[in-house]
Amino acid sequence: MPSAIDQSGNKPSQRNDDDVIDFKQIISVVIKHWYLFVLSIAICSVLAFVYAYYASAEWSASAKILVDDSKNNPSSAASASGLGSDFGSLFNVKSSADNEVQILKSRSLMENTVKQLQLNVRVFSKEGLKETEIYQECPFSIKLNYKADTLFVQKYNIKFDANGQYTITNSKENVNETARVGQTIKLKNYDFVLNPITNRLPTGSYTIKIVSVDDAVAQLSNSFIAALSDKQATTIDLSLSYPQPKKSEVILEEIMKLYLQSNLQNKVQIADSTIEFINSRINLVGKELNEIEGDFESYKTRNGIADISTQSKVLVSSANDYYDKLNQTETQLKVIQDLEKVLHNPQNKSVIPSSMVAPNDVAFGQSINTYNEMLIQRDKASLAYTNNNPIIQNYDQQIETARQTLLRSITSFKSNLQTSESELKRQNGNVNNKLLQVPAKERGYLDIQRKQALKQDLYQFLLQKREETAISKTSTISSSRIIDHAKSDFYPFKPKKSIIFLVGIFLGLVLPTAYLFIKELLNIKINSKQDVVKATNATIVGEIGHNEAQETLVAINHSRTIISEQFRSLRTKLNYLLNTSKPNVILFTSSMGGEGKSFLSVNLGSALALTGKKVVFIELDLRKPKLSEIMGHDHNTFGYSNYAVSEFTDINKLIKPIWFDENCSLISSGPIPPNPTELLTNPKLERLINELKTKFDYIIIDCAPVGLVTDALIIEKLADLTFYVVREKHTYKEQINIINSLRDTNEIRNLYIILNDIKINRNSYSSYGYGLEKPQKWTSKLKVKRN
Asked: Would you say the C-alpha torsion 160, 161, 163, 167 has a positive or negative sign?
């Protein structure tokens, strides 16, 4: 016999690899459900068009700021390190571009911008169902007097009439009032006033949306970006996304304006602190100078001194050098002591004028500059962070460390000055010893004159520094400047209609695909031949279509229906599966009831009988017999169960004729026994089949489902061929594993699958002339649905 079809059916059942993607099947499923994809793409495209039309457009405005970062400017750093510089060096602040970015992104700056421009109030005009925000073209301005700190989002509809009156409505707050422009309307959270911008009265309908300042700040902060242009530059790129292009430019300009004002105000504040410190010292030194000058005047008056004796000129001249040096030392010591008092107070965060002391001590001056720089950086950082922020706390720790270091430096420096002072006094004492011959009045005169000169020099020094600081304050400019003013793009960047349409088409493809995929995941039953092919390698020898007429007998003479031709095709394949030169036993089984074993048995037998073959049907489903009922007989009459339990041996009384074909006969099951399995193991069954082979060409056995009981496995050894029936949309996919198990264990030798009740594409058959004849109607005793 030909080997095109597996003859033995005993080979190991190798399951198909589930990891292999069957593109052919996928394309087949797509073509089969093409209408779903077309409909889904059409609906999603329409929704994408509607979304693109009604979505709020957004424009992007951009600007650029340059930060003069002295850390990257060698000339500025060199200038700042000059110890002989005046108080203007205080304004050579080392500004960090990264810190400036944080200041620009700070909530306080955005909140000031929102309040300044009243950005929590927006006006929309209606164009059909679409609302568009208006700004410069808005014909009126809005003034709100808030009554509550926290506001919920509220929308008010405004409609103007020709007389300058308007009606304001809000269904949530039950607001429905009429007023004239300029008139105050008292609402729950605020008083509301509309004022015309031009002499012409507003007309038309508008929508006003009011949110809290916090909400407006949050929304704008999310759409505002400030970032360095690159790692090497100190320029900051600013951008803002907003639905109104002109308004986005105004917002961005206001942010830059408030930032520059804050930057300049910070420097002015430092200058004011310095001037305040100098003024306090001038007042104290001036008071001391007045007291010394008064004492000097009293001394001269009391002693009648008008001029110093020419006799002491030479000695005084030699002593003046020591006096000058002592004056300088005491002046420095006095300033150091004042600074030490300031630094001993940890709460004092005022900057220290480095140029007031130690013009020749480079290390000490640099320590003061470092301390001042930390104070300035901490003040700037506090604009963006709270006192509990780790960055601020880190600055405080660094400032405290620098303060302690500076105090130690001052102590050391003061000790040096005191040593120098002691040495100068000692040397001055030597000179004084030489002046013992000078009248006592002259010595007192010189002492008072020296004190007066000391205080006078210190007083003049403070006056000079105050003027220099005042001049520096008036000439102070911001360390940042605008390079590019705010400018919005010509076209909105959002919505991107092309992307929206592509997403719509993509979703149109994804949704039906997901639907089919989920449907396949949730479907646990056999839906097509491909499901069986995936689950097992057992050979499928026949495919029987759905019986639309619901008639049990379809394979009859002169019938040209599709299903009758399928049974004829199955009959032809038996020539390849069986040795047709001898009688053959065909067994029908399945996984469970209702899969069509009896239906297939009757029609295959009928198709064989049409070729002149003698066919006998044996109803061996002793638990739930249906074959007798289909053929118009009662299974309770004399049948196999009677034959198996009695001494009866004449099988001719078992065989019943079937009315639809004289070549067909039936052996019914007989009464349902309590022990069907034992009856099937009876040796009389084998003797019965062997005797039937002498009378018939084909013996067709309708047996119980092998997925439920073992009856079929008992009978299988007597069969030449076993047909396992799988019914579409009825058999579970898991039940195909029964076939695999039977083949792997070789419990059934010649096992083949028949697919039953499949869907048929009539067009493919009608083109060859099939399916043109309707099924014939038979008598009522055959109008039983397939089992």
From this structure: negative
430-485 pLDDT tens trace? 766 666 545 666 667 777 778 878 888 888 888 888 887 777 666 556 677 888 89
Q: What is the pTM of this model?
A: 0.51
Boundaries of every domain in the chain: 23-55+495-522, 60-81+92-264, 265-484, 537-775
Range 537-775 classified under CATH 3.40.50.300: yes
Question: What is the 8-class DSSP label of residue 550?
Answer: -
Q: Could you give the angle at which helices 597-609 and 562-577 cross, rounded to 10 degrees? A: 80
* Residue 355: predicted pLDDT: 60
Predicted pLDDT at 7: 40
CA distance 257 to 109: 10
What lies within 8 Å, CB to CB, of 129 at 6+ separation is: 54
Residues contacting residue 352 through CB under 8 Å, at least 6 positions apart: 339, 342, 343, 368, 371, 372, 406
> What would the pLDDT profile of 28-58 be if each residue is shown by its tens digit?
878 888 899 999 999 999 998 888 887 878 8
* CB-CB contact of 272 with 347 (8 Å): no
Average pLDDT, integer, range 641-645: 89
323 or 583: whose pLDDT is higher? 583
One-character DSSP codes across 21-77:
--HHHHHHHHHHTHHHHHHHHHHHHHHHHHHHHHSPPBEEEEEEEEE--GGG-HHHH
Separation in Å, CA 681 to CA 459, 675, 676, 687, 746: 132, 11, 9, 12, 19
Residue with the bigger pLDDT between 466 and 61: it is 61
Name the residue among 116, 139, 136 with its Cα closest to residue 252: 116
**Which pLDDT value is given to residue 10?**
43
Distance CA(481)–CA(67), nearest Å, equals: 7
Residue 660 has φ and ψ, to the nearest 5°, of -80, -15
Number of CB atoms found within 10 A of residue 263's CB: 21
Q: Which two tokens stand for residue 469?
A: 């600081």
- Is the torsion defined by CA of 68, 377, 277, 355 positive or negative? negative
Q: Give the model's pLDDT for residue 148.
A: 66
Pick the most confident of 3-7, 91-95, 149-153, 541-545. Answer: 541-545
Distance (Å, whole) CA 66 – CA 101: 11
Contact 22, 520 (CB under 8 A): no
Segment 225-258, tens digit of pLDDT: 998 888 778 889 999 988 888 988 999 999 989 8
Residue 620: CB atoms within 10 A of its CB come to 27
Residue 535 has pLDDT above 50, yes or no: yes
Omega before 196 cis (within 30°)?
no
Between CA 374 and CA 396 the distance in angstroms is 9
Residue that the structure tokens 């759409």 belong to: 223
Terminal C-alpha separation, the chain: 34
Q: For residues 603 and 631, give the distance between their C-alpha atoms in angstroms, rounded to a whole number.
A: 11
CB-based contact 701:586 (threshold 8 Å): yes
The pLDDT of residue 133 is 85
* Amino acid present at 44: C
